[in-house]
């Protein structure tokens, strides 16, 4: 399997190289040169497989030639046996033909664990072989950070630097990052917002000279293809559980960086009969405005009760645009330059947008609607949604095209992570699970830095271990 850049002007890479590369040299994102596809018969034959075995079927074509089949199996067994539910990704029914896919059974209680637990093991595997050490640099609006730290803290060859917006993640989210002990783990609270953090991460990948040439940066955000890849599996798992491939399915995905929903788009390309993908955003609604009005305009970021989705620029949208532009890298590079300039309103050719609208719908959900949905679902079922999942359920109910097709909302996180929203909805905050029971008493370690690239890069260079 080879990987190519969305902007058409960077070398083709192997999986191993993509894993260790954040942004492509031309500023684009890596995607598979050819997407592996499966026939309906083959997919049907996987119906009774446990999660790890299904994961091996779906993932092996992406890593073949770089990761040994047996080694991948061992990694998948290790990763998903550590989840809190034997089904790994259980479905919870909330209405007739309507489900929440619980993706919060991993160690940090968010869907990010699915990929980042695996990414840590993949890094160990390839870095040992290459005798290399790397610096992990990531930006988080709340969930990626702790999942990245948890997934890579045991890696022998990494220093980890996670940037989060100071005061703008929930207490549980922050503590899940700042209480993990290790000389190689650094939490940087940026005096700015998530986009400031993400911009600094991307700029650092573009010019890594601040590391003085000794190490390379590795991405834990969904700009890293390995993140998307691992997230494809739970689409197959849930769809098979509900009768695919004979029966079509639809998904609503609470979306910030567009990575999770792009994984669903990939699953469809690989052969899964997905009829509809709903882009569910909070009031940081750049994608909804774009999909509904054909106007791409980045507006100032708002701080909401769904902090993980407080993102103004959705990195992975570029991967979808690459397909809509028929893999015309130079044309996409020109479009991305206009989009990233954040000055004008950018529009797409109507035929390209029409192509996207065949599969995607979108909806922006405000805080009152989010709270009301948490209350409504609880009243109807006794099931407490986290606020991000509630955004997804509201969008699912408003945008659903066909009541006969099962609608699955991705349950992106556990409600215990979002005390403010849970209390505003009038509920008691559930108890933290056993392994996090003393989280609020643990000692925290973090550094507060201004949102200045040179300062952040200087900090990383100074704290990185040198041989
Ligand atoms: N929603 C994320 C923000 C980063 O997105 P990613 O999927 O690219 O890691 C978070 O919770 O940190």
Outline the structure in words.
The radius of gyration is 21 Å and the shape is globular. 42% of the residues lie in helices and 15% in strands. A hairpin with a 2-residue loop joins strand 3 and strand 4 (98-102). The strands form three sheets. Strands 3-4-12-9-10-11 form a six-stranded mixed sheet, sandwiched between helices. It has 467 residues and is an alpha/beta fold. It has a domain at 86-110 and 225-424: Rossmann fold (3-Layer(aba) Sandwich), CATH 3.40.50. Bound molecules: ligand LJ64HWYM. The ligand N[C@@H](CCOP(=O)(O)O)C(=O)O binds at residues 140-145, 221-222, 256-257, 259, 308, 315.
In short:
Residues 99-327 form the Tryptophan synthase beta chain-like PALP domain. Belongs to the threonine synthase family. This protein is an alpha/beta fold.
Salient structural properties:
467 residues, alpha/beta, Rossmann fold, 6-stranded mixed β-sheet, 5-stranded parallel β-sheet, 42% helix, globular, binds ligand LJ64HWYM
Q: Fraction of residues in helices?
A: 40-55%
Highest CATH level, the class of one domain:
Alpha Beta
Q: Helical stretch count? A: 18
Mean pLDDT: 96
Number of strands: 13
Write the layout of secondary structure elements.
Blueprint (H helix, E strand, L loop, with lengths): L2 E3 L9 H5 L10 E3 L7 H5 L6 H13 L5 H13 L9 E5 L2 E5 L9 H19 L3 E6 L3 H10 L5 E8 L5 H8 L6 E7 L2 H13 L9 E4 L5 H17 L7 E6 L4 H11 L4 E8 L4 H8 L23 H8 L4 H12 L9 H8 L2 E5 L2 H15 L5 H13 L7 E5 L7 H6 L22 E4 L2 H11 L4
Parallel strand pairs: 4-12, 5-6, 5-8, 6-7, 7-13, 9-10, 9-12, 10-11
Antiparallel strand pairs: 1-2, 3-4
The structure holds ligand LJ64HWYM.
The ligand N[C@@H](CCOP(=O)(O)O)C(=O)O binds next to helix 6.
């Amino acid at each position: 399997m080879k990987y190519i850049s969305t902007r058409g002007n960077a070398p083709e890479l192997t999986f191993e190289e993509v894993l260790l590369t954040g942004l492509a040299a031309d500023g684009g994102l890596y995607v598979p040169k050819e997407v592996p596809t499966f026939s309906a018969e083959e997919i049907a034959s996987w119906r009774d497989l446990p999660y790890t075995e299904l994961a091996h079927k779906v993932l092996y074509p992406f890593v073949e030639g770089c990761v040994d089949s047996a080694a991948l199996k061992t990694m998948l067994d290790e990763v998903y046996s550590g989840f809190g539910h034997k089904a790994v990704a259980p479905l919870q029914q909330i209405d007739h033909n309507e489900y929440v896919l619980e993706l919060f059974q991993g160690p940090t209680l968010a869907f990010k664990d699915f990929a980042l637990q695996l990414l840590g093991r993949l890094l160990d595997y390839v870095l040992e072989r290459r005798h290399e050490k790397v610096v992990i640099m990531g930006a988080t609006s709340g969930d990626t950070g702790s999942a990245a730290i948890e997934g890579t803290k045991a890696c022998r060859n990494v220093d980890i630097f996670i940037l989060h917006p100071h005061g703008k993640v929930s207490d549980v989210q922050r503590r899940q990052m700042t209480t993990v002990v290790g000389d190689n783990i650094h939490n940087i609270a940026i005096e700015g917002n998530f986009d400031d953090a993400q911009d600094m991460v991307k700029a650092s990948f573009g010019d890594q000279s601040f590391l003085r040439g000794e190490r390379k940066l590795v991405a834990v955000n969904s700009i890293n293809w390995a993140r998307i890849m691992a997230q494809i599996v739970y689409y197959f798992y849930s769809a098979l559980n509900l009768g695919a491939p004979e029966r079509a399915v639809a998904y609503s995905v609470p979306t910030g960086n567009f990575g999770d929903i792009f994984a669903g788009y990939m699953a469809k390309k690989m052969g899964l009969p997905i009829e509809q993908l709903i882009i569910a955003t909070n009031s940081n609604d750049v994608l909804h405005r774009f999909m509904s009005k054909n106007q791409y305009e980045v507006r100032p970021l708002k701080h909401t009760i769904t902090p993980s989705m407080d993102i103004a620029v959705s990195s992975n949208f570029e991967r979808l645009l690459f397909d809509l532009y028929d893999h015309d890298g130079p044309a996409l590079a020109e479009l991305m330059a206009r989009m990233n300039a954040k000055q004008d309103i950018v529009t797409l050719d109507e035929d390209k947008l029409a192509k996207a609208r065949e599969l995607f719908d979108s909806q922006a959900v405000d805080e009152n609607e989010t709270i009301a949905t948490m209350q409504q679902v609880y009243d109807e079922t006794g099931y407490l949604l986290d606020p991000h999942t509630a955004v997804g359920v509201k969008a699912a109910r408003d945008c659903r095209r066909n009541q006969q097709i099962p609608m699955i909302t991705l349950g992106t996180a556990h409600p215990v992570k979002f005390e403010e929203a849970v209390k505003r909805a009038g509920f008691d905050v559930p108890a933290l699970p056993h392994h996090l029971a003393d989280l609020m008493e643990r000692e925290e370690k973090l550094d507060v830095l201004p949102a200045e690239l040179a300062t952040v890069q200087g900090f990383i260079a100074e704290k990185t271990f040198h041989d």
